[in-house]
Amino acid sequence: MAVPGRRNGVMGDDDDDDEILLDDGNALAELDLEPDVPPHLRALFEAVETGNVDALRRALDNHNGSIDEPVEDGDTVLHLACLYGYFSCVQLLLERGASLEAKDEEGAIPLHDACASGFLEIVQYMLSFASGPDVITRMLNVTDTEGDTPLHHAARGEHLGVVRLLLAAGASPMKININGKIPADLADQDTEVRSILTEAAAAADAVQC
């Protein structure tokens, strides 16, 4: 899962590190710290990184390869749109055939990114866009290399609305990651997210018994 240095075009406090003073002391030059994106995917990457849906549409029109080809850290453009929270880009990519189940180099699907960032509208749209209940079940249960489901990511981020939505869609509150943690274990103590997930896990355990 890629980690955005800038979100929605806003520069962070550390972005000044991207600049260096030239030898003559008269000007600043920015270092090129962009990831090593293949040239034929550069237009797609730049459009989705900035959330420019018109540029993304043009880039897709001119793109001859797979829409699910990784552009950065194994992430597809749909992963990145979900990570940055660009809803209109997510809509366009899904309309153009982007896969909801494409995995990045850490085994995460785009839903992991949207849940980790707490983008409720995107999560809801992707679940509604899925072609059927079997696809939704797979999306909710898929685990990354840490054994985390999308619900684990939503719990870790304390995203209450996303947690509620995932549980209502059928996400398991009992799934254990490689560290032996269920989603409730990843939420902070004495929070509503922790309480809801703990109750859901207890209810699921009672049904199993």
UniProtKB/TrEMBL annotation:
This protein's UniProt keywords: ANK repeat, Repeat
Entry superkingdom: Eukaryota
GO biological process terms, semicolon-separated: positive regulation of protein catabolic process; protein ubiquitination
Organism: Zingiber officinale (Ginger)
Record bears the keyword DNA damage: no
ANK repeats: 73-105, 106-138, 146-178
The family this protein is said to belong to: Belongs to the ankyrin SOCS box (ASB) family.
Protein name from the UniProt record: Uncharacterized protein
